[in-house]
Model the fold of this input.
Amino acid sequence: MLDINSILPARAMGIDRESDRPGQLRLPLAPNINDKGTAFAGSIFSLAVLSGYETALERLGQLNLSGNLFLLSSHITYHQPGLSDLITRSRIIEDLKPTRKANWKMRIEVEVVDAQSQSLCATFEGLYILQVEKG
Done:
């Protein structure tokens, strides 16, 4: 599983693991609060990106694939403000498919939920690409 603390911005935001399941992360409100007293949109986005990234890494590990994993494109919809810590739930919505350049792509959806009210705060969809190591 991804070592969240190895990613300096994630460490600075206080992102931690919500459970031992990949893609289930927690963002504390206190260090990520905006001028309105709610969760900062940039922190929510970063949380969702990392959740999707970890889910993709886990899937690649299951298939013994390695290379450079990166986010190619994404879309996020903010449904309502985050008023407490936020947690993520992620799932693969399009499993690995080959690309024209002999790489692999995977689409992942992440729900960002207010931990206290269990209300949906944001929905993120990311297209992650595995750039295969050439030997």
